[in-house]
Design goal:
Blueprint lengths: L1 H15 L7 H13 L4 E3 L4 H5 L12 H8 L22 E2 L2 E2 L1 H23 L3 E3 L13 H5 L5 H11 L14 H4 L25 H23 L2
Parallel strand pairs: 1-4
Antiparallel strand pairs: 2-3
């Protein structure tokens, strides 16, 4: 429920000192429930996607460098902020001429961002995170043809079949969140110096994920105002 985001977003952002990934509120609620059941540690699958080829949509083709930056960046800062800063520096170490090494980018950048989100949300509930896949490295290049042919995380699937002597490998269920519904009536961020005066957040001009990110940044900026005021 979006009411859960309204209830817990500020606490989680204050704990993280940064805006949130959309999964952090549900993770916090799940971890809090687990703690009430006497569970002190949760085993999570962080690293399976970013290291072993689970991000099949992002691995679906050989991306041009600028094309991938646009695809991965849900919001162009220049369309939202009055003083935008370029984000391309985060991608530059993975540039390979006119293309980009997507597997390494996912491993180094995307993966670490997910780790931070899980540790913040679950840790805020007083529960420890154990992520065994984060302790593993893939020693051979990913077989992109197999991933693009419908076999994401094929190495892990093969290991599962071998260990459990079965051909029935469970499929990951993606985390669904109805951002389109939640932000259908959202009219945009507060009138702040950080945001452009002519920002266009209406449906059609900005997709649901971009609206969520803009809302989250606005909420975080408001939280910073409260902290700044409280400390004089």
């Amino acid at each position: 429920r979006f009411a859960d985001y309204l209830a817990h977003a500020d606490h989680l952002m204050a704990n993280k000192a940064a805006p949130l990934h959309a999964i952090e509120v549900p993770l916090y609620l799940a971890a809090h429930h687990a703690r009430l059941q006497g569970i002190s540690t949760l085993v999570v699958g962080n690293g399976a996607d970013s290291t072993f080829g689970g991000m099949d949509k992002l691995l679906s083709k050989d991306w041009g460098f600028e094309e991938f930056v646009t695809r991965y960046s849900f919001v162009d800062p220049a369309t939202v902020l009055s003083n935008p800063q370029p984000v391309v520096d985060a991608f530059e170490p993975y540039r390979r001429g006119s293309t980009i090494d997507v597997p390494m980018f996912l491993h180094d950048v995307h993966g670490q961002g997910i780790v931070q989100s899980f540790e913040n949300a679950i840790g805020a509930a007083g529960v420890r995170v154990f992520a065994p896949y984060e302790q593993l490295e893939c020693s051979v290049p990913l077989d992109l043809e197999r991933i693009r042919g419908g076999q994401p995380k094929y190495m892990l699937a093969e290991a599962f079949r071998t260990i459990y002597d079965t051909s029935d490998v469970p499929q990951k269920v993606a985390f669904a969140r109805p951002m389109q519904q939640w932000f259908a009536e959202w009219v945009g961020p507060e009138k702040r110096d950080e945001f452009r005066a002519d920002i266009h957040t209406q449906v059609g001009a900005m997709d649901a994920e971009a609206r969520w990110l803009t809302w989250c940044l606005d909420r975080f900026a408001s939280l910073l105002d409260v902290v700044t005021y409280a400390h004089g």
